[in-house]
Design brief:
Shape: globular
Order of helices and strands: HHHHHHHHH
Structural class: mainly alpha
Distance between the termini: 18 Å
Radius of gyration: 19 Å
Amino acid sequence: MPLEDILLQIPVLLFSIVAHEYAHAEAAYRQGDTTAYMLGRLTLNPLKHIDPFMTIILPALLIVSHAPFVFGAAKPVPVNSRNYRRYVRGDIIVSLAGIATNLALFTLSAIVFAVIGLLAKSVGTAYSLGLLQRMMFWGMYTNVVLACFNLIPIPPLDGSHVLKQLLPPAAGMRYRQLYAFGIIPIVLVMWLLPGVIDVFMWPGLQLLKAALGLVLPLRLPDGIPPWVLS
């Protein structure tokens, strides 16, 4: 990946994962839990959400190693689900809030991407327009990957919180025991069963291609990875 695209992708990734965690905090607050608010996590200030490894080191390693997708995470927002006014409903809403935010950012990035394409088609290509459109492409790509990845129902990802509420009580109790292992379950799946990750990534990449397909008649910037349009 060209250095220019790396420099465009880093702020997009940082904002996207901070917005993801902020959405969890906001949703928890609205469901009756003030834990994140009291700890100062109900904010878009990135300094409150950055985790040195998951936010900085891991994404950097994935970018420089040309990984098939780039993933990063902020510090999980602390919540106390016992404070939710309705436990099951609250847990599902809070868990899906980050994913919904990433999909909203994907949509916003796609709209801006298209608007810039229209401008470029009418007034001609400008270097600054091309850079901004490429940043919006990475906004689309990053947010759809974050949304799909977090939907995977493996602890500690958001999808696992939804699955545990849908399982029968006995199975749900056994499933909850996996949370004691932290990120180990999802790391093992990524390492030993990468095809599982591909299954969840596929709909997001198709959505990305479909969104770009809507603006193919417009002027597209150089630097869009060729696999996106294939």
